[in-house]
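I'll show a typical protein example:
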Amino acid sequence: MEKINILYIGRHPEILETVVRLINNNENWSGYGAGSDEEAISFFKKINFDLVLLGCGIPKESEDILTNTFLTHSPKCRIIQHYGGGSGLLSNEILSALNKTYV
């Protein structure tokens, strides 16, 4: 089975590191983290992402630019807000967004 590629975009380095680590704890997922719009767009052009998580602290203007860029490049990619919380909440957000039932 091919891993599901997930990009987390966040402005807080410690949170970014933690979320990516939690994503990568699932053997079916490959997590990547970006701290800036430019870094996120660069990753997106190189890797086929199934899901993008938008973390706290991203200005609305940036969210709009990122969403438009990602959906233009990959219309099937899902983009959701990540509001924080423990690893269980993160897993539920991801599974709900992907509409899958396996962990």
About this structure: The chain is about 45% helix and 20% strand. The mean pLDDT is 91. The first helix runs from residue 13 to 24. Strands lie at 4-9, 29-34, 51-54, 78-81.
